[in-house]
Amino acid sequence: xxxxxxxxxxxxxxxxxxxxxxxxxxxxxxxxxxxxxxxxxxxxxxxxxxxxxxxxxxxxxxxxxxxxxxxxxxxxxxxxxxxxxxxxxxxxxxxxxxxxxxxxxxxxxxxxxxxxxxxxxxxxxxxxxxxxxxxxxxxxxxxxxxxxxxxxxxxxxxxxxxxxxxxxxxxxxxxxxxxxxxxxxxxxxxxxxxxxxxxxxxxxxxxxxxxxxxxxxxxxxxxxxxxxxxxxxxxxxxxxxxxxxxxxxxxxxxxxxxxxxxxxxxxxxxxxxxxxxxxxxxxxxxxxxxxxxxxxxxxxxxxxxxxxxxxxxxxxxxxxxxxxxxxxxxxxxxxxxxxxxxxxxxxxxxxxxxxxxxxxxxxxxxxxxxxxxxxxxxxxxxxxxxxxxxxxxxxxxxxxxxxxxxxxxxxxxxxxxxxxxxxxxxxxxxxxxxxxxxxxxxxxxxxxxxxxxxxxxxxxxxxxxxxxxxxxxxxxxxxxxxxxxxxxxxxxxxxxxxxxxxxxxxxxxxxxxxxxxxxxxxxxxxxxxxxxxxxxxxxxxxxxxxxxxxxxxxxxxxxxxxxxxxxxxxxxxxxxxxxxxxxxxxxxxx
Length: 590
Prior knowledge:
This protein is mainly beta. Helix content is 6%, strand content 54%. It has 2 helices and 38 strands. It comes from Gangjinia marincola.
């Protein structure tokens, strides 16, 4: 039976309700209680049992709890459970480190766990997080979103599906569809750890850094977003306008337009169809140059063949239309119908001129060519060998086909050779020429040894064998029987035979060289295995309050955390007063 006096009935309800609050408060230590101030305080046991409705009139509702302040236009506060829901112009502030705004928020004072939804913006000293929903664990000092968010740093803007902010470390961990937009470049990654104090980013999984001048790819890497330098160690490559740089370890400096690589390096020239390999390289994009050493090898495509150049050090410079290859120290050259050695080499790809300097030697089949300097000239359009020039003390030696101790020799001041279909078919020696030639019958029997001097000698070759020799001007010579030609006269002055050095395959480019000792690369460690943000808790100490709008059973797995504004928010003061009058009128009627 209800009391007849409505005032007594209301006082009776308030007494027991407040009494319940006092009883419950004894279970929470005073220092852990949420404190609050509010212009208007009401109770609505029908819609919000056990709660106090707090509203703004002139000043916002203000909650204080252990160093955090929360302001809002209205709130539902469950004092006995140390939990509140905040609505309208919500602002949450933690000292000088965190300032968060949203349309809705809730806070559990017992676990210090907060959730914000709808137009969430969290500001720290160096960045701003914008998302549609955000979890904030004050005990861990971590914030987390998983339905898409944006972090604006002093230099960049970062977006991702999932993000986690470790406030004490000033570290972000972004996962799924990570994108960093900077005025100079764009980073895309599947996972990125970002340290806000330094601007350092660690990339994990397939990642790209794209700018107007280059594209970097890696599956594990580091990038200084403020210093614009990077270090990449797994399946890494840098694509420039006309070059691709690959290696076990890559370093990248955007400000200097510089990159370097270590171990198992490959530089591909996409325009000139050439490849450079080695184990240490430097690339200067602005100068369009590459420096490579440690088993350096350049491979240039020529028609249906490839030219291999190996040196201790290789340098490739110049724009694609005028590219120069330089090789230094023990240079070796190989192609299917020719090989050679020299101290250094200079290749001009636009003119087709290859210069061999420093004890140069060229082998064309069984013909050995030596001199002070050797030039090989190719047709730039057809890429076919056209001319061979040997300057100063030119020498051509061919080992006799029958007697291995006998050598056909031609000597002159200069030599000019002509090629047809990349095969040497004519050789001309000029100035002070001499020959020693073993003349044989078709069956191979030796007719005699021809020793002749003249001003000019012309030799014709077929299938890389000498078939005719022509002597011009001031010819002086004869064919001598073998027994009348003393052994000590059978070699021209300056003769040298280096047949044992001839290259017959690509592998011979590296003959006599020991294995390369590769540099030990200091890798980038895998990301730290952090504890789950929503850690397991005892049933009697849940992370969420039972009054939370979030479902604890699906907290870990729900795809989207945004919660639409409630269909029925706390009543405005005017509507609330009208409802109270109707309730009083109904009670009086009864």
